[in-house]
Amino acid sequence: MKKIGKDFLWGASTSAYQFEGGFDSDGKGLSIQDVKEILNKETSDFKVASDHYNHWKEDVTLMAQMGFKSYRFSISWTRIIPNGIGEINKKGVEFYSNLIDELLKHKIEPVVTMFHFDMPNELEKIGGWANRKVITAYVNYANVLFDNFGDRIKYWITINEQNVLLLQGPIVGIKRPQNCNVLKHVFQMNHNITVAQALVMEECHKRFDSKVKIGTAPNISSIYPASCKPEDIVASKNIAVLRNWFYLDIIVKGIYNRILLALLEEQNAMFEIRQGDMEIIKKANPDFIAFNYYTTTTVKMNEKIDNYKLPDQERVFGFPGFGQTVSNANLAKTQFGWEIDPKGLKVTLLELQERYNLPVIITENGIGAYDKLEEGKINDDYRINYLKSHIEAIKEAVNEGSQVFGYNCWSAFDLISVHEGISKRYGLIYIDREEKDIKTARRIRKKSSYWYEKVIKSNGENL
Ligand code: BG6
């Protein structure tokens, strides 16, 4: 059996707004996440989160204890440039600079995401990604990151989950204008994001030698037809483009997939492509694909659409004659109703390999659960089982030709879930806080963190 390479990047992930806290500390500006109305009043906002802003050194020490080879985190745009464009906040630059140095001191490779759902609120006021001015603002922000951290970062990720941001905007805190043609609006945003990240990829290649790599990080999930009816097969191909391939075909191959363009035309939702945009996009040439994987998606053809009972990750727009997502009775579910499908990770890795032939890194994968702290311990065997089965799937995919070069599970530490609070815990490390009571935010290693330490030490052999 072909084995995982010795330089494989074992680690875990976080995102700035879900983990850092310090939402207005040391000159940070507000992002849309800081001003978001929390719909479920029982759950926490993002103001203090896991208080990483005040615990970062201790957090890196814990990562080093677990033997991390990499740590994938995101930089908060408004900590660097409080208004999104304009003045740079020196204290914000200093925070990440110190964090990066500390990681490198412990030989942990930083894998840095430039944007993870936290649009500066000042830019949201002018329309966010729907406004082309934000393309310029993002490129400017990326240049500030290159100027300040480019000497130390080998792996850059432009955008986290462009597809989720578009398809599930309201869940991740992105408002849509009232009475707009939703499809047209979100695919205009998609086009603007694509142009923005293509410009940043080109700039990265111009500035740095080939040791510095840049890629994008959509949420990719293999799509299964609900049956072997030819209609369901067609639906699965259609939803696969809407859910996955549209965002990668364009940035990797420079082509907008016709399956979705045809739907947009039919729905009177074609977005504007300005002269010169396609040339910019064609020069993107990402060096790798990062992707987040939680579950697969099952699809059927339907005349009437009704998929809104599904949990967030399994829900996508459905259209009569195009397809819609349904639940899969063959799969077990997490406490939060997400389907668990390790085999699907193998399928996804092999599909990515076949379709794009690029190195890939898994930047999120994990299980959200109501962990319990009992007598100072968290016995999260369900998390060990989840991670173990997914790592087994990675090993099988490696053996069958996947060029996967890293696994960064979600998440390194407990953090605030996108819309289900701190009670939906994903971390290897427990954060001792409740939804409304921040307590001391003490860090406690869960059973899974000791197990993962052994996995890393044995390069995935000892599961
Ligand atoms: C991914 C996001 O969609 O899924 C993360 O990149 C998120 O930010 C993760 O936390 C898990 O989703 P949730 O809704 O359980 O927080």
Overview of this protein structure:
The chain is an alpha/beta fold and 463 residues long. Helices cover 39% and strands 13% of the residues. The protein contains 15 helices and 13 strands. It has helices at 16-19, 32-35, 52-65, 77-80, 90-105, 121-124, 133-149, 162-167, 182-207, 230-253, 258-266, 277-282, 342-356, 381-399, 447-457, and strands at residues 9-13, 70-74, 109-113, 155-160, 213-217, 223-225, 288-292, 297-300, 324-326, 360-364, 404-410, 429-432, 442-445. It has an 8-stranded parallel beta barrel, surrounded by 4 helices. A 3-stranded mixed β-sheet has the order 6-8-9, with helices on one face. It has a two-stranded antiparallel ribbon with strand order 12-13. Helix 3 runs parallel beside helix 5 (90-105), helix 7 (133-149) runs parallel beside helix 9 and helix 13 runs parallel beside helix 14 (381-399). The longest helix has 26 residues, at 182-207. The model has no long low-confidence stretch (mean pLDDT 96). 6-O-phosphono-beta-D-glucopyranose is lined by residues 15, 18, 160-161, 164, 219, 292, 312, 364, 368, 410, 417-420, 424.
